[in-house]
């Protein structure tokens, strides 16, 4: 089977780190900025950064609607931190004009774990990731307030939901791309491979 091609939405945030993590997890990784580039990928990562900025730039670059369409069609997508917010069907406290791509039936609270200077690391047990707990880096991280019946909770920290999956869409509050542990990216690459197999 050929190696899956996975894009990283390269509008803002820690794009380079995701490209490295995806390559380490045996995917071909490439930055994506334009609608036509969406047609060339088997999966997409939406990185951390600032969710309001990513939302505005996605609209400006003309990728918001094509992204929503591809998610509806079943494109595997993984969002970290701000990417989790972008994949939520509803934000509890959105900024004015803030839009999301949607794809996961959940309500997310922005900056729930505190401001930049309250960032922290914690060991997180993630369902579907074998071995030791994942070292989660939480930077102005959101948490999930509630999920719908089709949304699977993969991890919690401090009584709050920090990793979820619904079908082909995966999201974490934390940043595994910053730790050198590529197991969560490996989980996503496996999701992309399974989706390609099912579609062929």
Write the layout of secondary structure elements.
Layout (H helix, E strand, L loop, with lengths): L4 E5 L5 H10 L3 E5 L2 H4 L4 E4 L4 H10 L3 H9 L4 E4 L1 H5 L1 E4 L12 E6 L10 E5 L9 E5 L4 E5 L4 E6 L2 E7 L2 E4 L10 H17 L1
Parallel strand pairs: 1-2, 1-3, 3-4, 4-12, 5-6
Antiparallel strand pairs: 6-9, 7-8, 10-11, 11-12
Note down, in words, how this protein is organized.
The chain has helices spanning about 15-25, 35-40, 50-60, 65-70, 80-85, 185-200, and strands at about 5-10, 30, 45, 75-80, 90, 105-110, 120-125, 135-140, 145, 150-155, 160-165, 170. It is α/β, with parallel strands linked by helices and about 200 residues long. The protein is built from 6 helices and 12 strands. The strands form 3 sheets. A 7-stranded mixed β-sheet has the order 2-1-3-4-12-11-10. The chain has a 3-stranded mixed β-sheet with strand order 5-6-9. The relative contact order is 0.18. The protein is globular and about 40 Å long. The termini are close together. About 30% of the residues lie in helices and about 30% in strands. The model has no long low-confidence stretch (mean pLDDT about 95).
Summary tags:
7-stranded mixed β-sheet; 200 residues; alpha/beta
Short description, anyone?
With 200 residues, this protein is of the alpha/beta class. The chain has helices at residues 15-24, 35-38, 51-60, 64-72, 82-86, 183-199; strands spanning 5-9, 28-32, 43-46, 77-80, 88-91, 104-109, 120-124, 134-138, 143-147, 152-157, 160-166, 169-172.
